[in-house]
Amino acid sequence: MIKVILCDDHALIRRGIRDTLADAPDIEVVGEAGDYGELRSLMRALPVDKQCDVLVLDINMPGRSGLDVLHVLKDEGTATRVLIVSMYPEDQYAIRALRAGAYGYVNKGGDPQLLVQAVRTVAQGRKYVTPEIAQMLVESLTAPAPEQAHQKLSDRELQTLVMIASGKRLSDIAEELMLSPKTVSVYRARVLEKLGLSNNSELTVYAIRNGLVES
């Protein structure tokens, strides 16, 4: 039996994923979490026979993002394999997530059965990529595409960009990320400099044009 933990800040999304996986006789959802803090508590509290094989993780969460969680788990040498399930298109986050240690990346808007297939693949210790991601990987090897400006951002800088473009104030971002407002301001300044932009309005336009947030 493949044991799975779901980590997504939207309860309805978690319910949808749980219902999809419930139809698979070889998959059992052993726990759910809405953020990194809940995830850590859950993973510590699970008995040995319920330790998960696959963590189905969202990228956009309050506090630590999915990318942050990937880095933490990788640094700790956790045996749990991570499958990213995100609303964001593959061309924006998939490669970044795989580089951070994810075993696979699935878009939330895709065929539910692909999620079941992805969980089974990841549980076997194999990488799961969609044909779109496979094509991106091949193209990057054979004819590297010009790097987009936001691809030069660190994970935290990218997270700051997305949150600003989503309409959040620096004070709100600081609270969610558990950082000081001064630190968030530094990240914002770095983003503006690296992207060659001047203000939050330009950041928002850039993020929408590049599919980093929904318009």
From TrEMBL:
Pfam families: GerE (PF00196), Response_reg (PF00072). The keyword DNA-binding applies. Keywords: DNA-binding, Phosphoprotein, Transcription, Transcription regulation. Gene3D superfamilies: 3.40.50.2300. SMART domains: HTH_LUXR, REC. GO terms for molecular function: DNA binding. It comes from the Bacteria. PROSITE patterns: HTH_LUXR_2 (PS50043), RESPONSE_REGULATORY (PS50110). GO terms for biological process: phosphorelay signal transduction system; regulation of DNA-templated transcription. PANTHER family: NITRATE_NITRITE RESPONSE REGULATOR PROTEIN NARP, TWO-COMPONENT RESPONSE REGULATOR. This is LuxR family transcriptional regulator. It comes from Roseateles depolymerans.
